[in-house]
Amino acid sequence: MSNPKGYVSFVLHAHLPFIHHPESEDYLEEQWLYEAISETYIPLLTNFKKLEEEKVDFRITMSLTPPLLNMLDNKLLQKRYIKYLNTHIELAKKEIVRTKDNAKENELAKYYLNKYSNDLKVFKEMYHCNLIDGFKHFQDIGVLEIITCGATHGYFPILYVNEKTIRAQIAVGVQTYEKYFGKKPRGIWLPECGYVPESDKYLKEFGIDYIITESHGILYADPTPIYGTFAPIVSPNGVIAFGRDIESSRQVWSSINGYPGDFNYREFYRDIGYDAPYDYIKPYIASNGARVHTGIKYYRITGKDCEKDYYNLQWAQDSINMQAGHFFDSRVNQINNLAPITENPPIILCPYDAELYGHWWYEGPDWLYVLFKKIYYDKCNFKLITPSEYIDKYPNMQVSTPCRSSWGANGYSEVWLNHTNDYAHKHLHNIGDKMVELAQNFANENDSIKIRALNQCARELLLAQSSDWLFIITNGTMVDYAKKRIKDHIGRFNKLYDALIKNTINDTFISFLENIEEKDCIFPEIDYKIYF
Fold first, then answer.
1. What pLDDT sits at residue 2?
2. Is the peptide bond before 223 cis (omega within 30 degrees of 0)?
3. How far is CA 152 from the centre of its chain?
4. Distance (Å, rounded) from C-alpha 185 to C-alpha 203?
5. Cβ neighbours of residue 385 under 8 Å, at least 6 residues apart?
6. In angstroms, rounded to a whole number, what is the distance separating the alpha carbons of residues 402 and 458?
7. pLDDT-derived band of residue 132, with 50, 70 and 90 as boundaries?
8. 3-state DSSP call for residue 399?
């Protein structure tokens, strides 16, 4: 199709907070990474590879955030992921024995043994424990555009009280991207899609062409964009903004009337970690004995308020095929309606958390695979495109300033600033100001220990600023862990700061510095002078 009537652009935001505990294997939160690798990143890479081998031309955009890249590149976490897989393989083998009298459970136990064994093979043999190179390959062949994010997902609409802290988040995000992908990123997923006009000048300084915003960031832009979210706008400072399409997002994302709620799909919350006999499952749950998810799940969603039925892989596949067809038809109709009234062919931007695909919606990666094949082979009026390709094709766009916005509940900042977590902000602002002070006071520092301490101050500040901790406190999940992380990073920063300002560096201090350098080892190449 040489001249499509419109375009569809999928953008997946792959992000996890930096969690690295060399001091203990008891942190359940470390498993967030391992679950995401097995349920989201490997399935996505596997389906991209199938599309490549089948010579299906497709396009997708993903942000791989700096904390995620640092964790995927971490040797300890790679080893622990292999251990996680071996434990799951052992459990799946036991499940085959335990469920021998239940044909449906037994078939699924065999399926999980095969899945985790295959994950181990893919991780070790195909990717040599380095999934970053896996994603880089698809960027290099032109089907995947990888974009960056703020260094630690710091939330710009609150951080901009001290603009140098926003500048550092952008600078380190861009530097991390260049380290792993060998070129500059053209786009950025603003953390939590949090936009403030004050960040534009720093985005431009570090070569960012475009941002992803929530729908109302475009719809309430000034002046009002003529084509709504169906065309990008460019701010007076030259930053291009793409807004989330409401209709396509709801179809996929909504757990109530979206595809993930289909009764044939795997039930996320029903897991053998809760169902299996306690003494049997105890070695595979939390170290403190609390029942938690193992990833082995035998049931489908089934319906509301009814007895859960067994998961059926074929029925799930039938639903995938049906819903890929529905999404396809919906976009055809949407573009037929839009094309006559937009100057350029309309773009339907579909941004989602990557972990929705596979982790929360188990069938999500396979749905993308079926959909991309359908778009390639079936007659339709649209093509898949990346934001960069769209900008290059259609460089003329309306000048308009996006509205301050986020994709949090109600669209603004209340998820990250409310009565449950507001205590943290005065400390975060305080250490942000102190970091700028340190960068100025030690601008010409030559002492190697002091330089290490200053760089570690920058790491502790960035880790404390992660929006994830504030989000977790608001949501009421793993609250103690999130509060501990905020407190630990602020405490470590202040201890370093005091020793630097008072010049009380001694052997005890050096041993403290070495300890936190090992734990908080994100951004090994960081230079504290980015705060100058």
1. 63
2. yes
3. 11
4. 11
5. 7, 8, 9, 59, 347, 393
6. 30
7. very high
8. strand
Tell me what percent of the residues of the chain surpass a pLDDT of 90.
Answer: 95
501 shares its domain with 359:
no
Query: Which tokens sit at 201?
Result: 């000048």
CA distance 243 to 138: 25
Domain membership of residue 182 as a residue range: 6-73+135-266+311-410
pLDDT at 182 over 80: yes
Q: What are phi and psi of 133, to 5 degrees?
A: -65, -30
CA–CA distances in Å: residue 184 to residues 121, 165, 173, 180, 181? 32, 21, 10, 10, 8
- Name the domain boundary from 410, 426, 443: 410
Residue 230: name the closest of 389, 385, 402, 8 by CA.
8
416's tokens: 């990250």
Cα 236 → chain centroid:
29
Q: Give the three-state DSSP class for 348.
A: strand
Q: Are strands 6-14 and 240-243 parallel, antiparallel or unpaired?
A: unpaired
CA-atom Rg of the chain in angstroms = 24
Indicate if 246 and 345 belong to the same structural domain: yes
Which string of DSSP letters, residue by residue, matches 185-209? -SEEE-GGG-B-GGGHHHHHHTT--
pLDDT confidence bin for 72, thresholds 50/70/90:
very high
- pTM (2 decimals)? 0.97
**Torsion 466-467-468-472 (CA) sign:** positive
Give the tens place of pLDDT for each residue, 280-309: 999 999 999 999 999 999 999 998 778 899
Same domain for 370 and 242, yes or no, is yes
Residue 470 amino acid letter: L
- Mean pLDDT (whole number) for 140-148: 98
Mark whether 218 and 351 lie in a shared domain.
yes
CA-nearest of 529, 520, 507 to 456 is 520
Tokens standing for residue 43: 């399935």
CA–CA separation, 64 and 146 (whole Å): 7
Q: What is the pLDDT of residues 414-434, one digit of tens each?
A: 999 999 999 999 999 999 999
Count of the separate structural domains present in the chain: 2
| Residues 345 and 360 occupy one common structural domain | yes
Segment 475-519, tens digit of pLDDT: 998 999 999 999 999 999 999 999 999 999 999 999 999 999 999
d(C-alpha 146, C-alpha 77), whole Å: 23
* Contact indicator for 403, 214 with CB cutoff of 8 Å: no
> Are 432 and 363 in the same domain?
no
The count of residues in the chain is 532
Domain of residue 331, CATH code: 3.20.110.10
At 198-240, the pLDDT tens digits run 999 999 999 999 999 999 999 999 999 999 999 999 999 999 9
